[in-house]
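Protein modeling request. Please complete all fields; requests missing the sequence field cannot be processed.
Requester role: graduate student
Desired output: 3D structure, token encoding
Chains: 1
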Amino acid sequence: MSEENIAEILKVKLAEIKETYIVLLVTPAAKYQNVNLELLKYMITENDLPGVYITVNKPYTVMKKQLEGIVDTKRIIFIDAVSKARGDKQVEEGVLLIDSPKNLTDISIAISEAANSIPEARKFILFDTLSTLLLYNSAGTVARFTHYLVGRMREWGAEGILLSIEKEEGEDIISQISQFCDVTIHID
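Delivered output (188 residues):
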């Protein structure tokens, strides 16, 4: 599936939803990178929204580099739960570093700070990925954290996207988390 097809699928599926939404987006690992970039492009360029991007998957420096020339990265506050464990220190404005993907309390606090610092009423929050959280935390803990996070997203009036990699062993948690969301989109 090409980038144009992924972009078109996302546009159509997200346009079908009410204005403010929480989406669980499940994608095969092979399409994850394109889906992730197209989501950010859609939220920032198409919807003209500032937002918060939480990465527990790869360092924010990698994401910023991939996004250069595609979107205005100044419209994103990055919450990075990867870099600090590698010894990186925060040097940029608009980036919050968290010790580890295990530290859900600090991730929650950082998301709250970031969301509240965006003055615009409309914003997005994109969590990349729930699948990685499951490597560091139990399924029950991730489900409780996600339930809390979705509640906060609704409080802030944010358009929320929870990204997950499709895996057979994660079907139970996907079913559980989908209950908290307005819609679940599967990219095939």
